[in-house]
Specification:
Strand 2 and strand 3 form a beta hairpin. A 3-stranded antiparallel beta sheet has the order 1-3-2, sandwiched between helices. The chain folds into 2 domains: about 50 residues, no CATH class; about 120 residues, Arc Repressor Mutant, subunit A. Helix 2 packs antiparallel against helix 3 and helix 5 packs across helix 6. With about 180 residues, it is mainly alpha-helical. The mean pLDDT is about 85.
Length: about 180
């Protein structure tokens, strides 16, 4: 019996807006002023419900550039929010990063943010002809831990058309290093 009651409450919760419109229309038939007041209160409450989201987005965008590299788990801890919520926001940001200086990658079921400085260093090393192994060694101080992250950064930059062609190929760079 309780499960039917819970299902009914969930159904009402999902369709609350429809019930609200029907209630306002019924009240409008009998008393127009009360319906107008209910509508204004509903619009104000609906607008106020977006304010916490706006503050959260601003906090997130302010926090991320302070780190050269930060994972979604750490962001969740710093902002005291749930991991799925942070991952959803980082996913949305990653979809809009075509013209941004920073980069968000998705690897091993986690999002990782890299600031402008780290991405610029990666671009410089990439165009010089360094391979994944050499780039990883140079960027370990910036928080990049694995070659998988290097591959994901490269793929994401290529996908967003933000990576120039190499000046020297990896093989030419390694030969030059070996013989000099």
């Amino acid at each position: 019996m309780p499960s039917k009651f819970v299902k009914t409450l969930k159904t009402i919760g999902r369709k609350w807006f429809i019930f609200l419109i029907i209630a306002i229309l019924i009240v409008f038939i009998f008393y127009q002023l009360a319906a107008i007041i209910m509508t204004i209160i509903t619009i104000v409450l609906f607008a106020l419900s977006y304010i916490p989201t706006l503050f959260f987005n601003k906090k997130l965008k302010k926090l991320l550039p302070n780190y050269s590299s930060i994972e979604d788990k750490m962001v969740a801890r710093k902002l005291k929010r749930s991991l799925p919520q942070i991952q959803e926001k980082m996913h949305n940001l990653s979809k809009k990063q075509n013209k941004k200086n920073w980069l968000i990658i998705f690897t091993n079921r986690h999002y990782i943010f890299y600031n402008e400085e780290t991405i610029e260093k990666f671009r410089v090393y990439y165009t010089k002809g360094l391979g994944e192994k050499e780039i990883l060694e140079k960027l370990k101080k910036s928080g990049i831990k694995t070659r998988d992250e290097i591959k994901a950064i490269e793929e994401t930059l290529v996908e967003n058309s933000r990576l120039e062609a190499r000046e020297v190929s990896v093989k030419e760079y390694r030969d030059k290093q070996r013989f000099s």
